[in-house]
């Protein structure tokens, strides 16, 4: 690439989220939907941009109107779209959501027979950009099928654990043939990463069940510098060579939990880029996730640092 390296470069899933404006209704009774940009690594890139960082996402969309919407939305959020390829056959994925606060948000994925972002190939990769980015972010979904799996692992190998190489476990059961396959390929990715982020269920697939403290310890044993377990209504836990820190969730009125994890991830990137200590990163990321949980959308709801700090003060 030309110019300066990206501060945050992500790779993987993108889609168009369709959310009902009314909460508490099954899809069979919904009469209209609001359209938003979605996809976990895409949301993380948007979150990083909201904090003022240069960001881009490596992904693919279909040759259709929704694909054009993705490009326009990314540019509107300040995310570089140069690595958004166009698949000539597969269509841009859609995701329909049902909203049942405070903790039930089922998703219906339209990614069949194959989503464009699963067709990311090694040949698509700008290896210089991947190597030079301050943070490179991968996800478990990107490992669930070929050729995306080979491209994701090749990108991680190119990084050689330089800078902050973050792997989000991001396990979606319907995308995998079995949890065993998911665990095997996730461990391959973690062998090439420096930071791991996942919830307790995702961690159990990779390092086995147990308490969050046991899971982060096992993750660090893989050679990681930082391991984070998200525990939903029980808060979050971070571990590094110097210790561990657990934080309780903030008391907020939850509207939708769908974007909270991505907001958490974007905040982790922000803290790492600014050189914060792990405790400060965890408290800020926890608040960023809580902020987005009070909103309906994902990418559109990503906060600024000022907004996160305001919530931290209001809930102190």
Entry summary:
The protein is of the alpha/beta class.
Account of the 3D structure:
The chain has ten helices and 13 strands. By secondary structure, the chain is of the alpha/beta class. The chain has a single domain (8-314), classed as UDP-N-acetylmuramoyl-L-alanine:D-glutamate ligase (3-Layer(aba) Sandwich), CATH 3.40.1190. The strands form two sheets. Strands 5-4-1-8-9-10-11-12-13 form a nine-stranded mixed β-sheet, sandwiched between helices. It has a four-stranded mixed β-sheet with strand order 3-2-6-7. Helix 6 packs across helix 7, helix 8 runs antiparallel to helix 9 and helix 9 (278-293) packs across helix 10 (305-314). The protein is globular and about 50 Å long.
How many runs of DSSP E, i.e. beta strands? 13
CATH class: Alpha Beta
Shape: globular
What value does the Rg take, in angstroms?
Answer: 18 Å
The percentage of residues in β strands lies in 15-25%
Distance from first to last alpha carbon: 44 Å
CATH superfamily: Ribokinase
Descriptive terms for the model:
alpha/beta; 35% helix; 316 residues; 10 helices; nine-stranded mixed β-sheet
